[in-house]
Design goal:
Length: about 280
């Protein structure tokens, strides 16, 4: 797609089923914030808590910054939110490469979430294998299991690399396909760090999976993932939520530039139903 059409600020276009195109990365982040808030309210109303796994990268950084602003932070009942991660590098939290460290700096210290509700992947421990096992125990403690015995998040945010990887599931990695493990430590030669990651069955068990993809450098791989038939498939193609789960791509115009729009391009549905996201008296602010 050479041009996504007249995409107006704040009004995404659903150019393919589940693919919402925004004008720029800031609008992608704003759309992600609205989904976070809407899904949090739905989960808390149904289950009494909201279980979400975050990812790293520049686009989530914008998401975290927005969630921490006065405009949005009062719209979340943070005392009932539990934060996890989809993957992490084997670096301490103070390292600039730490996904947890970035989320902490940009959001966690700026919103009233209890620290006991923040469950980081301790991939920097001396034994990353033992740390992965311990994180599985954390998931077992806090999350309900689906019909196949895997932990079920309300929402998982994911990014996508230029090679089609997502979380720390890289092309050619054994854990990119089915496994009985919940958390793995892929040893990928081209990766700069050892990694800890949720496995594909855990991603597929989530009620909702939302990919955030921005920038012209992602245009080619986004086209390949959404419209191609790679063999073997890219890890991002393999993510297929079960049990009527939802899979969405929030992308900017630059990343969508090579996509072929569906015949009936239409505005994307609202990120949240009108009136459902309002701070109630007594909520944390």
């Amino acid at each position: 797609m050479d041009d996504t059409g007249g995409i107006r600020k704040g009004v995404p276009q659903e150019i393919l089923p589940g693919v919402h195109v925004y004008a720029d990365p800031n609008e992608v982040a704003r759309g992600a914030v609205r989904l976070f808030i809407d899904y949090a309210w739905q989960a808390i109303a149904k289950d009494g808590r909201f279980m979400v796994a975050l990812s790293g990268g520049n686009t989530p950084q914008l998401l975290f910054q927005l969630l921490a602003t006065e405009e949005f932070r009062g719209q979340v009942d943070w005392g009932k939110v539990h934060i996890f991660w989809s993957d992490e590098r084997a670096v301490p939290p103070t390292d600039p490469q730490s996904n947890y460290g970035m989320a902490r700096r940009e959001m966690l210290i700026r919103v009233p979430i209890p620290m006991g509700n923040v469950h980081r992947m301790e991939a920097d421990k001396p034994s990353i294998g033992r740390a992965a096992h311990e994180y599985e125990e954390v998931l077992r403690k806090y999350l309900e299991l689906d019909d196949r015995g895997f932990p079920r998040f309300h929402l998982i945010f994911l990014g996508m690399g230029k090679d089609g990887h997502t979380a720390s599931l890289f092309p050619g990695s054994r854990v990119a396909r089915q496994t009985s493990r919940w958390v793995s430590t892929p040893n990928v030669a081209k990766a700069n760090f050892r990694r800890m990651t949720l496995t594909m069955p855990v991603l597929d068990a989530s009620a909702r999976v939302v990919f955030l993809v921005v920038g012209s450098e992602k245009a080619q791989i986004l086209h390949a993932v959404l419209e191609g038939k790679a063999e073997p498939p890219y890890p991002a193609q393999l993510v297929q939520p079960r049990n009527n789960g939802i899979k969405l791509f929030l992308v900017d115009k630059a990343a969508a530039s090579q996509l072929t729009p569906a015949a009936a391009e239409k505005p994307a549905p609202p990120a949240r139903p009108s009136g459902t996201v309002r701070a109630k008296p007594g909520r944390n602010t």
